[in-house]
């Protein structure tokens, strides 16, 4: 005989830190609602807030080794990404593929999934639309060229670049950027995909696992790319918007370095993911915090520091690059000479056609 639950009894309180944090994160920290629904009759606001925060702090420390403020910033980024997408996920799983619950793959974008910088692609697109002048983005282009040649990514450069991008879009309409983002993804970024990395992502999709982009690029651009590739979703830097217009301020973290770890922690709570069964991919040592929190870490086209750390920890390393490999093989002077010779040849040919 089936016994119906007693409607007078409150829902069962989560039995472990993971379940507790999942409910708490979904409520966006609404401690009064959470405690009244799951724990006890209405209490005073201050005791509930203190009890709920203490429990959340303990759960976050136990599961992820971060503090509550870092976790909340990550949760803000995840909720901001969901609001930007208008849904918790961008795509629906193939019904013919059995779902592997609890498992997911997290991919960095720049120089991991695509060659070069998505932010530079966005800035160039904004330049073509006369949002600003080419000289305004020259420093950003220079920093990306430096990275392509020497494989050194500066955390300061990344943060400054994202702040610059937020300033570029301040006062612009969200739908304006979204339309431009589709053009940039379709005409420029898809052609720059590393086929090897895309194959790895498809492997996870075919295994019934979630696949997420986790990137410092604006979330609107990241979500367009993720949807085009059939990924589950994308977490990115979330620009604040009011009445459909960008304010120039952030929601949550800039998703770079530790910010990615904070967002993945919150996402795993909301999606019920077991991080020991998850995989993360990145090219940068700045993403070691995210790579260290999953069961399988893969260094894709790694910079020097990440390659050294990956080899020390026994992580998988994959290299799909060509420019830096050629620099190591032939040397920068030889490549520069070859580049100048090729440019001269093209110029002579163009003159002959006149």
TrEMBL record:
Keywords attached to this entry: Hydrolase, Membrane, Transmembrane, Transmembrane helix
Example of a GO MF term: hydrolase activity
Domain of life assignment: Bacteria
Keyword Transmembrane: yes
Pfam family, one: HAD
Bilayer-spanning residue ranges: 330-347
InterPro entries reported in the protein's UniProt record: HAD-like_SerB, HAD-like_sf, HAD_hydro_SerB1, HAD_sf
UniProt xrefs under NCBIfam families: HAD-SF-IB, HAD-SF-IB-hyp1
Family: Belongs to the HAD-like hydrolase superfamily. SerB family.
Protein name: HAD-IB family hydrolase
Annotated organism of origin: Corynebacterium yudongzhengii
């Amino acid at each position: 005989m089936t016994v119906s639950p007693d409607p007078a009894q409150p829902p069962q309180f989560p039995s472990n830190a993971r379940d507790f944090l999942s409910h708490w994160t979904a409520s966006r920290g609404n401690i009064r609602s959470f405690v009244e629904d799951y724990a006890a009759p209405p209490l005073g606001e201050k005791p509930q807030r203190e009890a709920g925060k203490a429990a959340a702090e303990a759960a976050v420390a136990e599961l992820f080794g971060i503090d509550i403020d870092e976790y909340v910033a990550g949760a803000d980024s995840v909720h901001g990404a969901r609001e930007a997408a208008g849904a918790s996920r961008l795509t629906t799983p193939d019904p013919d593929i059995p779902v592997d619950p609890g498992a997911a793959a997290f991919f960095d974008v720049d120089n991991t999934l695509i060659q070069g910088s998505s932010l530079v692609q966005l800035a160039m697109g904004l330049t073509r639309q006369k949002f600003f002048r080419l000289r305004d983005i020259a420093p950003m282009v220079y920093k990306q060229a430096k990275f392509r040649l020497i494989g050194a990514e500066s955390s300061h450069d990344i943060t400054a670049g994202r702040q610059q991008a937020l300033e570029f879009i301040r006062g612009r309409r969200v739908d304006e950027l979204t339309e431009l983002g589709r053009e940039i993804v379709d005409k420029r970024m898809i052609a720059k995909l590393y086929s090897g990395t895309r194959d790895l992502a498809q492997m996870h999709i075919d295994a019934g696992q979630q696949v997420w982009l986790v990137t410092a690029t604006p979330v609107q651009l990241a979500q367009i790319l993720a949807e085009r590739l059939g990924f589950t979703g994308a977490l990115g830097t979330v620009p604040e918007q009011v009445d459909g217009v960008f304010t120039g301020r952030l929601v949550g973290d800039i998703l770079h370095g530790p910010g990615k770890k904070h967002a993945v922690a919150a996402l795993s709570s909301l999606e019920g993911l077991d991080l020991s069964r998850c995989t993360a991919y990145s090219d940068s040592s700045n993403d070691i915090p995210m790579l260290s929190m999953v069961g399988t870490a893969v260094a894709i086209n790694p910079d020097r520091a990440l390659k050294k750390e990956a080899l020390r920890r026994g992580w998988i390393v994959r290299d799909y690059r060509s420019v830096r490999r050629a620099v190591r093989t032939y040397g920068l002077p030889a490549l520069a000479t070859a580049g100048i010779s090729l440019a001269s040849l093209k110029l002579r040919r163009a003159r002959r056609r006149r």
